[in-house]
Amino acid sequence: LNAEKLRFxxxxxxxxxxxxxxxxxxxxxxxxxxxxxxIKRNPHKIYVFNLNEVESMLQSRNKTSGDxxxxxxxxxxxxxxxxxxxxxxxxxxxxxxxxxxxxVDHAIHR
Length: 110
Description:
Elements: E1 6-12, H1 13-21, H2 26-41, E2 46-52, H3 54-57, H4 68-88, E3 92-97
Parallel strand pairs: 1-2, 2-3
Helix pairs in contact: 2-4
């Protein structure tokens, strides 16, 4: 693997989660569109995305406490975008890091 073909991005789950809590979920859709545009401009590169603090963005939708409807909506929206990205582009790798794996939605464990 040639290092020139590799692009690395770090996404911070806590920052993404705060966007949802501010009622601006469309910004996440725009962010995914920007990622797609980057990939389309350089389709021969391999893109690695590290989602740091994944538990803050992709909280379990099975939670029963707190404002679960917002968390569930955020998780579902993020997962929909992510699944489409990974299905459409074989040159994308997602790495998630967490200190609280039990708090992460089971769908992201795949």
